[in-house]
Amino acid sequence: MPIRHEPEASRYVLLDDEGDFAGEVEYDTQGDTLLLVRAEVPMERRGGGYGVTLVRETLEMIRDEKHGKVQPICPFIAKFMVKNPEFQALRA
């Protein structure tokens, strides 16, 4: 599923295979650090793995495109990063 960075809205958006909204990660910027404040998947899509896909794709984009370091404020993102140590290098 594709992820899209929308810097004007301070968010990363997950789209499903049809191009429909499937979730978002909102962030604030503090220097060169992205404070990942919220990961949200629409209620009707919960339980389908969209949250994990959303967070994984967002962190991969941040890493691959060198958007900076991250500080996970959202508990879901923080827990995901603990369980997936390949993203620890992104931590501020």
Automatic annotation (TrEMBL):
This protein's name: N-acetyltransferase
GO molecular function annotations of the record: transferase activity
Q: Does the keyword Magnesium apply?
A: no
Organism of this sequence: Pontimonas salivibrio
Which key words tag this protein in UniProt?
Transferase
Q: Using the record's annotation, list all stretches that form the N-acetyltransferase domain.
A: 4-92
- Matching Pfam families: Acetyltransf_CG
Q: Which PROSITE patterns match?
A: GNAT_YJDJ
Q: Which InterPro entries match?
A: Acyl_CoA_acyltransferase, Gcn5-rel_NAT, GNAT_YJDJ
